[in-house]
């Protein structure tokens, strides 16, 4: 099938590469000329395991093309996915101006040959109606099109696998032709498909993301009860997760959730609900718990260091989660900011995010070449991302390098008993 994917960010690039890998002819479009030029040279704008190989393979085979020319690409395609960014405005409301701009450009090439315009970006419920309206008023009379919604559930770090092996495929459609065309396109995935109306499809995405974020906030609240009672949150989570109705995933207590999806989608959903006349207090509280969690990490460090002034904290892990270099809305940024305000000095190391860290962090933050370099002369080791390589650290060596043997394990990566035996003052989240 001939496909255009507009927006070559995380979702767009992965969508384009995967569809091409399945044998479709795909145009990946972006209005960022530099990004498109780099992609043509095989340079990825993001780090995502397996993406570079897949892009290169399909680009060389001629199935994947990169262009800034949205109109030509759309004209040649049957299915046009819109995967552009919907960044938050200061109010939390998502900015849908890129979606509108793309829609208007697509509208100008619509004619009697049938096309489906599919929302892939995370958008508020009822955006589909706006897209349809915009296409109608900006296109010729004979324009033959449908609008559909196909929300994406991929996670950074495992995006290709999530795209190729989804738990479910959600198709929000309004016509038989849209349903049949999209079912044919998604047939090779051999995954369960739920076909519904467009509004329900849009809501499935926001409801799923906010439910997962709330699940993490729930276990973080339980962790706080564990801290007060001496119970172990990892055991509580294990016991809860064995109940199939609850499930064990997304029950890892820690420093809170971050990244470019959960915080943004949560705020957007709260905002949309308010606009629709519903005060979604449940989500507001889940969001507040997440904000509080970062302060709890600071208080836990304070209980070992007393004053921050003149002390150095070695931060291990900046990416909002392992296997990505993405630090957008990462918990690490807020925590580092709070520590700096308290007067602490900061040294940081992350296996993949150092380049982005250099651009984002205060110039006083010392960028280190590895965990040992960060630990050298520091008063506390603070782990904020559970990178697999951090499980292999030589704590004997770290203890010699640190000024004080203090570990704040904000992702519950280590066995407290082992570190205590080595002579560390260990603090985790919801366990001792
Ligand atoms: C999320 C959704 O999982 C995905 O379906 C959607 O398409 C996009 O948003 P992503 O943001 O890539 O994906 O990351 P995810 O793995 O969901 O983690 C989000 C945040 O939650 C991270 O900061 C992570 O550290 C945190 N988290 C996750 C926890 O604190 N505890 C957990 O148990 C799981």
Describe this structure in words.
The protein is of the alpha/beta class and 432 residues long. It folds into two domains: 2-196, NAD(P)-binding Rossmann-like Domain (Rossmann fold, 3-Layer(aba) Sandwich); 209-427, NAD(P)-binding Rossmann-like Domain (Rossmann fold). It is built from 17 helices and 14 strands. The chain has helices spanning 10-21, 33-40, 51-60, 70-75, 97-107, 127-138, 159-164, 176-186, 198-229, 233-241, 262-275, 281-305, 331-341, 354-360, 371-375, 395-401, 416-421; strands at residues 2-6, 25-29, 64-67, 79-82, 115-119, 145-149, 169-172, 193-196, 312-316, 345-349, 366-367, 380-383, 406-409, 425-427. Strands 3-2-1-4-5-6 form a six-stranded parallel sheet, sandwiched between helices. A six-stranded parallel sheet has the order 11-10-9-12-13-14. A two-stranded parallel sheet has the order 7-8. The longest helix is centred in the middle third of the chain and has 32 residues, at 198-229. Uridine-5'-diphosphate-xylopyranose binds next to α9.
Helix content: 40-55%
Per the CATH scheme, the topology name of the largest domain is: Rossmann fold
Q: Determine the CATH superfamily of the largest domain.
A: NAD(P)-binding Rossmann-like Domain
Helix/strand/pairing class, anyone? alpha/beta
- What molecules are bound to this protein? uridine-5'-diphosphate-xylopyranose
CATH architect. name of the largest domain: 3-Layer(aba) Sandwich
State the low-pLDDT regions, or none.
none
| Quantity of strands, as a count | 14
Question: Mind telling me the C-alpha Rg?
Answer: 24 Å
Q: What is the total number of structural domains?
A: 2
Q: How widely separated are the two ends?
A: 56 Å
Major sheet size, sense and barrel closure: 6 strands, parallel
Strand content: 5-15%
The dominant shape is elongated
Q: What's the level 1 CATH class of the largest domain?
A: Alpha Beta
């Amino acid at each position: 099938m001939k496909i255009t994917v507009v927006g070559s960010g995380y979702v767009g690039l992965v969508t384009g590469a995967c569809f091409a890998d399945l044998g479709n002819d795909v145009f990946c479009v972006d209005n960022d000329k530099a990004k498109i030029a780099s992609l043509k040279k095989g340079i990825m704008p993001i780090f995502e395991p397996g993406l570079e190989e897949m892009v290169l393979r399909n680009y060389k085979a001629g199935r994947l093309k990169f262009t800034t020319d949205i109109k030509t690409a759309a004209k040649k395609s049957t299915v046009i996915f819109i995967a552009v960014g919907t960044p938050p405005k200061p109010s939390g409301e998502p900015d849908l101006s890129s979606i509108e701009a793309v829609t208007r450009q697509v509208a100008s090439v619509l004619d009697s040959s049938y096309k489906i315009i599919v929302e892939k970006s995370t958008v508020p419920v009822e955006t589909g109606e706006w897209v349809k309206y915009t296409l109608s008023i900006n296109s010729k009379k004979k324009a033959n099109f449908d609008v559909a919604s196909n929300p994406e559930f991929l996670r950074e770090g495992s995006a290709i696998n999530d795209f190729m092996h989804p738990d479910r495929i959600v198709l929000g459609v309004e016509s038989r032709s849209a349903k049949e065309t999209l079912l044919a396109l998604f047939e090779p995935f051999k995954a369960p498909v739920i076909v519904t109306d467009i509004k329900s499809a849009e809501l499935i995405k926001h409801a799923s993301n906010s439910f997962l974020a709330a699940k993490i906030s729930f276990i973080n609240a339980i962790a706080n009860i564990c801290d007060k009672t001496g119970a172990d949150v990892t055991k509580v989570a294990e016991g809860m997760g064995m109940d199939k109705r609850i499930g064990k995933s997304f029950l890892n207590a820690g420093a809170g959730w971050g990244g470019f999806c959960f915080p943004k989608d949560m705020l957007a959903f709260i905002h949309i609900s308010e606009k629709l006349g519903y005060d979604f207090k449940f989500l507001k509280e889940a969001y507040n718990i997440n904000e509080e969690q970062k302060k709890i990490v600071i208080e836990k460090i304070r209980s070992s260091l007393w004053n921050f002034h003149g002390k150095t904290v070695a931060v291990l892990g900046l990416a909002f989660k392992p296997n990505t270099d993405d630090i957008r809305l990462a918990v690490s940024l807020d925590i580092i900011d709070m520590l700096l305000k308290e007067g602490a000095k900061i040294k940081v190391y992350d296996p993949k995010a150092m380049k982005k860290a250099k651009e984002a962090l205060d110039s006083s933050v010392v960028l280190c070449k590895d965990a040992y370099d960060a630990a050298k002369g520091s008063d506390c080791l603070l782990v904020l991302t559970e990178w697999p390589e951090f499980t292999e650290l030589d704590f004997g060596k770290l203890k010699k390098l640190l000024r004080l043997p203090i570990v704040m394990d904000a992702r519950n990566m280590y066995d407290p008993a082992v570190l205590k035996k080595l002579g560390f003052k260990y603090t985790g989240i919801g366990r001792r």
